[in-house]
Amino acid sequence: MKHPQPLSPWTAEIGYRMRKLLWLKMLGTTAVTSAFFIGYFYVLRNPVFPVVVMPETALDRWIGFQPGALFIYLSLWFYIGVGPGLQRGFWELVVYGLWLMAMCLTGLLLFYLWPTAVPPLGFDASGYPGFALLQGVDAAGNACPSLHVATAMFTAIRIEQVLRDALVPRWLRAGNALWFIAIAWSTLAVKQHVALDALAGAALGLAFAWASMRWRPGAQQLSSTTTRRAENTP
User: Considering the domain boundaries, does residue 15 fall inside one?
Assistant: First the structure.
């Protein structure tokens, strides 16, 4: 009888992280996302200052409208669950969520103080699959910074940290980076944002991701564990 091959150290580590507190992670992510949307839509539909239309750049004109990118755009709502899903313990999960909420609240405050919108398309996109729903639910406001890109950037950096700590192969880590790039591109391709929105969103996500990795439970211990594992890897 053949015995199953033992899991490599990184697959065992990632598997453990995915199973740990699974239901809490799922319920917590759903609750935080729902609470965010309540604030997001309130600010979107009740601007207290004049709405500024963001200018297009050459990049926006070059990319153009690409309705096929909607699936990638919507994939963010699965992608953002991967970050908390890979946290190893309860306090790591809680602090991760607090940093993510702090970033989103900062974005909402910016939307409140400086309401922005993207330029009108100039044609009716509602005939394309999914766009009537998208336009009805998420009007092209709350544009800058793009919280779509900000949350994707935050998630990409935090996932990369976990994959690096677990010594995951580089080709899999590259997949994480490509997913972020695809989501950022899709925000321009479906015309929910312009390039300046995406750039500001990336900066916001980068700032909070950096802060969240600097102040998080067990950061020093994780670094030491990673170093020992790397030294013991043939």
Answer: no
- What pLDDT digit, counting tens, does each position of 88-131 carry? 999 999 999 999 999 999 999 999 999 999 888 877 777 678 77
Among residues 103, 95, 77, 34, the alpha carbon closest in space to that of 179 is found at: 77
Q: How far is CA 58 from CA 139, 144, 176, 188, 197, in A?
A: 23, 18, 27, 12, 14
Pairing assessment for the beta strands 52-53 and 116-117 based on DSSP bridges: parallel
The pTM for the full model equals 0.86
Task: Write the pLDDT tens digit of every residue in 36-62.
Answer: 888 888 888 888 889 999 999 999 999
H-run or E-run covering 40: helix 22-45
Considering just the CA atoms, what is the radius of gyration of the chain in Å? Answer: 20
Residue 7 in domain: no
Helix/strand/coil percent split, the chain, to 5: 70, 0, 30
Q: Domain range holding 104?
A: 23-232
Residue holding tokens 């300046």? 196
Q: Which residue has the tokens 């609470």?
A: 35
- Please report whether residue 18 resides in a domain: no
Structure tokens at 41: 């839509």
